[in-house]
């Protein structure tokens, strides 16, 4: 799982194994170890009807409705948008990049823009 943060927008990109884990365990998380602190970002299933996000002790926690998670796991749906206060949230399947990259993309979804 990767995140992109710009101003009041947070974008979560999930690989195939992230979405499988989210569907099976009800959560997925990633960590970045800074010199003095661990930064965690995670998505967890909720019974709520809308997505919400908060920062709790150096951790971004996105609560995502279970019905949305089920749809990501079991359909061709590519993502969902939501908003928490001023913060826009996007959760999406991570597609293979169109341009050349050295990043390992073997766990990413095929890019629909590459279909002819």
Largest sheet: 4 strands, mixed
Coarse structural class: alpha/beta
The poorly predicted ranges are: none
**How do the strands of the widest beta sheet line up side by side?**
1-2-8-7
Count of folded domains: 1
- Over the alpha carbons, how many angstroms does the gyration radius reach? 14 Å
Q: Per DSSP, what share of the residues sits in E-state strands of 2 or more residues?
A: 35-45%
Number of DSSP helical runs: 2
Q: Please tell me the CATH architecture by its name.
A: 2-Layer Sandwich
Q: Quote the distance from N terminus to C terminus.
A: 28 Å
CATH topology: Gyrase A, domain 2
What share of the residues lie within helices?
10-25%
Structural shape: globular
Quaternary status of these chains? single chain
- So what's the CATH class? Alpha Beta
Mean pLDDT: 87
Number of strands: 8
Order of helices and strands: EEHEEEEHEE
Give an overview in words:
By secondary structure, this protein is of the alpha/beta class. It has one domain (2-96): Gyrase A, domain 2, CATH 3.30.1360. Helices cover 16% and strands 44% of the residues. The chain has two helices and eight strands. The chain has helices at 16-25, 66-74; strands spanning 2-6, 9-14, 27-33, 38-46, 52-55, 59-65, 79-84, 87-93. A four-stranded mixed β-sheet has the order 1-2-8-7. Strands 3-4-6-5 form a four-stranded mixed β-sheet. Strand 3 and strand 4 form a beta hairpin. The longest helix is centred in the first third of the chain and has 10 residues, at 16-25. It is globular and about 40 Å long.
